[in-house]
Each structure stands twice: as structure tokens, then as C-alpha cells.
Amino acid sequence: MADSTDAPTPAAEAARPERDRPWVMRTYAGHSSAAASNELYRRNLAKGQTGLSVAFDLPTQTGYDPDHVLSRGEVGKVGVPISHIGDMRRLFDQIPLGEMNTSMTINAVAMYMLALYQVAAEEQAEAAGEDPAEVRARLAGTTQNDIIKEYLSRGTYVFPPGPSMRLITDMATYTVGEIPKWNPTNICSYHLQEAGATPVQEIAYSMSTAIAVLDAVKASGRVPDEDFGKVVARISFFVNAGVRFIEEMCKMRAFVELWDEITRERYGVTDAKQRRFRYGVQVNSLGLTEAQPENNVQRIVLEMLAVTLSKDARARAVQLPAWNEALGLPRPWDQQWSLRLQQVLAFESDLLEYDDLFTGSPVVERKVAELVEGAKAEIDRIQEMGGAVPAVESGYMKNALVASHSLRRQRIEAGEDIVVGVNKFETTEPNPLTADLDTAIQTVDADVEAKAVEAVRAWRTERDADPQAAAAAADSLARLKEVAATDDNLMEASLVCARAGVTVGEWAQALREVFGEFRAPTGVSGSVGVADGGSADLVEVRSRVAATGEELGERLRVLVGKPGLDGHSNGAEQIAVRARDAGFEVVYQGIRLTPEQIVSAAVAEDVDLVGVSILSGSHMELVPDILKGLESEGAGDIPVVVGGIIPESDAARLRELGVAAVFTPKDFGLNEIMGSFVDIIRERRGLSARETVDV
């Protein structure tokens, strides 16, 4: 017998292949103020987060200072308000920017945010006795800066497509020489999927946008042909990963294959490293449910696997939503949970020790080929229209997304697509995570907006009280407008504005005066809606709409309104499309309206019901303004319903104020919502609760 003290056999020693470096781990964060967000960032970095992902509030994203009329109710709600260089200094206090990898979800005003970021980094360098130019060259990160998708989904555009593309081009040609590690644009398919895109549309539309950007940079003549590969190498992508994780993984492999082909054949890039498809990912927030929200954890894990399992198509950076995002703003603990999901996969599992797991799989190869073929056909269709910009201006891409989103909703309503806890397996035990909904999410202090308004006014007052500083700010804005009227690069003029203490609102307004503003097509008028007669439920609702209209001697008319700066219009568009399919006459004017404009439209159009959609958390400020406005116009009898991510305590308060009904993400049945519209109109007009209809 062997002695018990003998050394163990080799079988006792686990094999440990060399591991790949993990992806950059981020959480999308920012709220209330620069100081509060800075504290959150430093806490997250201490927990092992390896990069920052800055969420800006809607006024910042759309180029307004906190004291602008359209900023009401929106300040500090979905991100951090950044108005000037002072705010940017506070946001990154004690965070050395020369050593950080920072992603900024900013589009229309991306140039000014990058200018503020660069100036803040240079100031840090000077304070530390370092060379500002050297630190600037080390800056690493991304400005999202994909304005094309803003016209299609997220709605934080400001300027028309042409000037917007010019801003992206200016940033690309500036950063390639001055900030060579910076990604000046992050082509975004994430929000396309949220707006209804199929995998083929997601690939095709984002690739078409990338082609438009690269064509514009090449046409500018500012980058020598021999350096064009450097521009291609700094184009990154930001994608979505849904719960159909096999299909999503194949989508990413299709992206890799198609990008390599386009950059090689269309742009002649010979360096394989420069042709690499570089992407970060936020997994699907659209699929997170308010009902049984604990199920969101496994959804998030599956979606993360879609972008990490395949080494040849692995994300370079990952940020995960929190389990409770369908309920409201996640708390720091919720964000920590999402970070830990990434860390367990990267450091406890053996995922990073192996080559690609799917190479040679006939199933995967067949699906990838199918996606590539479909995407190429759609790209060709868009190129025949003149490219991504004309396809946006004509409404083609928006119409297609609204239509595909409508079809997806129909599949869920019909039970063809199962959403656990929503349209199947709805029986549940009481959830201890949400036993107290008011503490299950984070809320923004009520005085955040007032403090931000006071602060930005004090900044401008103090600046302008100094004649030299006031002159510098005025001169920088005049120079900005002067350059905007030419073909010269706007980046240097923006840096001068940043150093002079110009606010985001002032910078954007100067460019509005030169470029004008833009209202994108809504996609509602061209949407296919329900292709046939619809389900029995829809047929019944349509009959009820018609019968009620006959009783009242008019066709029922509904106004769907998007007040404030919330540009996430997917829900409003689907309500508008289904209301039209149900027989209502629909008034929908798109996003970014003041309460006064919604009231004016409701009165002018003599509507029977006003539906208000708000997902940014500004419902407690904007909805009461609409109710008061209707009352003052003698139209207080028009019922108002509200939809959005609204905590129950807020919903109860809105009903007390006179709102007829509140709908949240758990109310996914559009036909049931349409039936509620009829019930509410009948009650408000003094008709019997149920009319007799022949179906």
C-alpha cells in the first residue's frame, strides 16, 4: 500500500489554461447632481467596476439648461445634469481621467460633452504637474454620438440629420489625431431593438449608419487615405442582447463577419486589427418585466451569455441593467448585484480559458449566414434610397420599426411569444423584494431640480459679473456660430466655449440658430398595424368604439401626448397604432411637447380622451400641469389617462388629482387598454356602462 504521506497524483491538480482578459465592466449610472453621481462612481469603482458609463439627464441630452421651460420635471431624473465645466469637474473629482475608460451616453450634444471632458482632464493634468497634451492623448472611452438612431427610437436629437452628421464627422476627424484612443461615435443598435427591430433590421440599420459616417469622413477630405484605417479602428458599436440568446449570439457573429467585409471591400482597410468589430453591450431593458420582476435576473444572465460565450464575437465592454428597472430607478445595491453577475461569470467560471465554442457548428453557421444575407438585402435597399440619412428623412426606417414592434406586440398578446409571469405562469407567491415598493427603487430628492436651476443661474450670473469672463463667453459663442456657418471643424470652437464657462444650453442654442431644429417622422401614419381584422378581442373593441361614436354622433377621437423631454416613444406609438386599428381617430404629434401644447391640441381637436406617455419619471410635475391647463381652458371634462414607469404611490396620487386611469408595463394588453378608453369615455359622457354591440 502507498504511504498516506505520498504526494497526490496529477489528477488532484486542476488544469488551469491561460485566461483571456475580461471585458470592461460597467454600470450605467448618474442621477441628481454631479456631486451625488461622483460619489456613486467612486463607490462602484471600489467594488471592482473597471469603467464608467455616464447617464446624463434629458435636459443635458437635448441641449437645455435646467431652467429652460422644457426641462421642467426632467432635471436629474434619468441621469446627471451637466451644464458647464464646473459640473464636469465635480463629476470626475478624484477620478483620474487619464487612467479611466469612460463611456458617455450622449448624442446631440456629444461634441460639447467631449470638449468639457477634455478640458476637465487637462485641468487635472495641470494640477498634478503633468503634461496636458500627454494626458489628452491617453484619454480612453466613447461618446455614443449616433444621432441617426435618435430619430428612430430614443428621441434626443436636436438638429436636422445633415448638421448632426457634420458634428459626428468633425469629432471623428478631430479625435483621430488629438485623442487617438477615443471612440468618437458608437453606432447604436441597442435602441433599434428596443424600438422593435428584428435582428436583421438591427444589423442592417446600424451598418447603414456606420457607412454613412465613414462616407462622410472620407468625403470631408480631412483624413489622408493612408490614415483612414485609424478612423475605422475607432468606430465602435453599442448593441442589444435579448433573451433569445442563441439567435443573439449568432447576430453578433453576423455583425463581426459583415463589418469585416464592409471595411475591407468598401474602404480598403487591409489591417485586420483595424477591421475588428469592437462593441459594448447593454442587455435588453425592454424585456424586463414589472410583473414577477425577480425573473429579470435570469433574463439578464441569459442575455449576458449571448455576448460573452462566443470568443470570436465577444463584447469589449458589458453593462447590465438591474432587476428592478421596470419599476423605477435602481438603488446602488441593485447595481452592485448586476456587477456581481458579470464578475461571477468572468472570474469564477472557466469561460475565458477556451477558444470559441461555436466554430464549426453547422447550426450556428447556418443561422449566421441567414442573418448576413437578410442584412445585406436591407442594406442594399437603404443604399438605393441614398443611404441612412435619406432613409430617416423619408420615414422609411421609422415606419419599418413601428411596424415590426407592432407585430411583436401582437405575438405577445396572442400568446405566440411567451413572457413568463406576464402572459403565462402568472400565479405567484408574494415577492419579498417588492413588499415595500417605495423602498424597492431609488427616488430622486424633490429639490434636485430647484437646486440645479439655482446653481446654473448662479454660474451664469457670476461669470457675467466679470467683464472679462462675460466677454470671453460671448466671443466664444459668436465664434461658434461663425464656424458653424462654414465647413470648418467645430471642435476647437467648442473647446473655447468650454474653457469660457459657456453652458450646454447656450452652446446648443447657438447651433440651433445656425442649423435649425428638426422633428422626426413618427412612423405611426405608415405603420401596418394589425394586418387583418385582428383578434376577437380587437373586433369587439372596434365594435364598441363604433357603437359609442354612433351614440355620441361623432367619431371618437384620442390624443396621444408625449410631454417633456422623454423621447422613448415606442409605447406611445404602439398605443396610437392600436387605437387607430380599434377605430379611434388618433392625434399624435410626436415627442417633446410642453403641457401647454398638449392642452392646446386637445382643445383644438376636440378630443374625447387624452393619453399621456411618460417614462422619465416626470409624471408628478407634468401631468398636473396638463390637468390644470385643461381646466383653465374649460375642457376639464376631457378624461386624461397616463402610461409609464410609475410607482403605485405616485399612481394613487395621480388618480386623486383626477387622472382617469394609470397604465404601467404590467398592462401589456393593448386591446384591454383600448376597452378601458371606451369605458372611460362613456362614463365621462354620461352613457351607460356597457353598450350593446353586434360582433
TrEMBL record:
Keywords assigned: Cobalamin, Cobalt, Isomerase, Metal-binding
Subunit details: Heterodimer of an alpha and a beta chain.
Domain of life: Bacteria
Similarity section: Belongs to the methylmalonyl-CoA mutase family.
Named cofactor requirement(s): adenosylcob(III)alamin
The B12-binding domain, residue ranges: 555-684
Name the UniProt record assigns to this protein: Protein meaA
Organism: Janibacter indicus
Pfam families xrefs: B12-binding, MM_CoA_mutase
Phylogenetic classification of the source organism: Bacteria, Bacillati, Actinomycetota, Actinomycetes, Micrococcales
SUPFAM superfamilies the record matches: Cobalamin (vitamin B12)-binding domain, Cobalamin (vitamin B12)-dependent enzymes
Biased composition (Low complexity): 1-14
Annotated region (Disordered), positions in chain: 1-21
GO MF, any single term: metal ion binding
Record InterPro entries: Acid_CoA_mut_C, Cbl-dep_enz_cat, Cobalamin-bd, Cobalamin-bd_sf, MeMalonylCoA_mutase_a/b_cat, MMCoA_mutase_a_cat
